[in-house]
């Protein structure tokens, strides 16, 4: 698996609504099989972004932090992909992430892995990495790996600088 990341841009997120807007923008470009690796400060908006992504995808259930259950699957209520939401914060490495059997749903869902940097890279060569920094004045940094994202104009699709 390749770990070469390409910086695609940043986006200023002045409040929670702007953070949710990023999740809704992601929903317009993701498809089944996509892996999104989220990193960032505690409280920086990883779950807020994922919640808005799930709502925009039209998945079942409230998207909440899966900290205590590690992973939640939200089936699609329509024709779109399901959402698999993982919190890897308490996992000890790729072996424990692999034990979750995510590969059984990778092809059929959009998989978001919070705190996945350093272990989720082995799941797919094609990944979107989202790093959220700051608490009140957030900044989102988008990096990608793989051919899936090479021809997508993420600057205009996601409002990146």
UniProtKB/TrEMBL annotation:
Keyword terms, alphabetized: ATP-binding, Cytoplasm, Magnesium, Metal-binding, Nucleotide-binding, tRNA processing
Annotated protein name in UniProt: tRNA threonylcarbamoyladenosine biosynthesis protein TsaE
Family note: Belongs to the TsaE family.
Organism: Dermacoccus abyssi
Parts forming coiled coils: none
Origin superkingdom: Bacteria
Key word Ligase present: no
UniProt-listed NCBIfam families: T6A_YjeE
Keyword Acetylation recorded: no
Family matches, as InterPro entries: P-loop_NTPase (IPR027417), T6A_TsaE (IPR003442)
The protein's role, per its UniProt record: Required for the formation of a threonylcarbamoyl group on adenosine at position 37 (t(6)A37) in tRNAs that read codons beginning with adenine. Is involved in the transfer of the threonylcarbamoyl moiety of threonylcarbamoyl-AMP (TC-AMP) to the N6 group of A37, together with TsaD and TsaB. TsaE seems to play an indirect role in the t(6)A biosynthesis pathway, possibly in regulating the core enzymatic function of TsaD.
Location (main, coarse): cytoplasm
Location(s) in or outside the cell: Cytoplasm
């Amino acid at each position: 698996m390749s770990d070469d990341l390409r910086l695609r841009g940043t986006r200023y997120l002045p409040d929670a609504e702007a953070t949710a807007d990023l999740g809704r923008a992601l929903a317009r470009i993701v498809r089944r099989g996509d892996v999104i690796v989220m990193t960032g400060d505690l409280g920086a908006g990883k779950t807020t972004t994922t919640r808005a992504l799930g709502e925009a995808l039209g998945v079942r259930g409230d998207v909440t932090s899966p900290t205590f259950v590690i992973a939640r699957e939200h089936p699609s209520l329509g024709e779109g992909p399901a959402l698999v939401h993982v919190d890897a914060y308490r996992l000890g490495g790729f072996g424990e992430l692999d034990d979750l059997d995510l590969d059984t749903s990778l092809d059929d869902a959009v998989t978001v892995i919070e705190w996945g940097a350093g272990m989720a890279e082995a799941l797919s060569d094609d990944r979107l990495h989202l790093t959220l920094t700051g608490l009140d004045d957030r900044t989102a940094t988008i990096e990608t790996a793989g051919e899936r994202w090479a021809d997508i104009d993420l600057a205009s699709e996601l409002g990146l600088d």
